[in-house]
Write a structure and sequence with these properties.
With 133 residues, this protein is α/β, with parallel strands linked by helices. Helices cover 37% and strands 27% of the residues. It contains 4 helices and 6 strands; from the N terminus they run E-E-E-H-E-H-E-H-E-H. Strands 1-2-3-4-5-6 form a 6-stranded mixed β-sheet. A hairpin with a 4-residue loop joins strand 1 and strand 2. Helix 1 packs parallel to helix 2.
Length: 133
């Protein structure tokens, strides 16, 4: 298996943007990698989200945090991506944590029983605090 490394022309991994109609920004540090997402996650952009999360998971971060606090809608394709990434992260031994307080995400998660599958924190700080315990 080849280790993926971004070409030298890419911006540094510490702060990058992923090209998509969904606003995705990535910040990597020694303690975690945060994939911050803003907008609506639907079938048109769920593959962009999958690519961004998959790419970061390949680097085997200490923890992968999906900051969805600025996501206003997520359809089944988006939840499917999140479930699949969570499974891949678990296989890789990388904690996968979601950050959101948005009812638009929490309500469907509860109805689908995904609140028992995901680790969800209301803030990025609380997610990071949990990692340091």
């Amino acid at each position: 298996m080849t280790d993926y490394r971004a070409p030298a022309s890419d911006p540094p991994r510490s702060a990058r943007r992923f090209a998509s109609s969904l606003d995705i920004s990535i910040t990597a540090s020694a303690g975690d990698t945060v994939v911050a997402v803003a907008g609506e996650i639907d079938l048109a952009v769920s593959d962009d989200l999958r690519r961004a999360l998959d790419e970061e998971l390949r680097f085997k971060p200490s923890a992968l945090i999906a900051d969805l606090s600025a996501v206003t809608f997520c359809d089944s394709s988006g939840f499917t991506v999140l479930v699949q990434i969570r499974a891949k992260a678990e296989q890789a031994g990388v904690p996968f944590i979601m950050v959101t307080q948005e009812r638009a995400l929490l309500r469907p998660m509860a109805l689908l029983g995904l609140d028992a599958v995901f680790i969800v924190h209301p803030t990025l700080d609380s997610a990071r605090d949990m990692l340091t315990r």
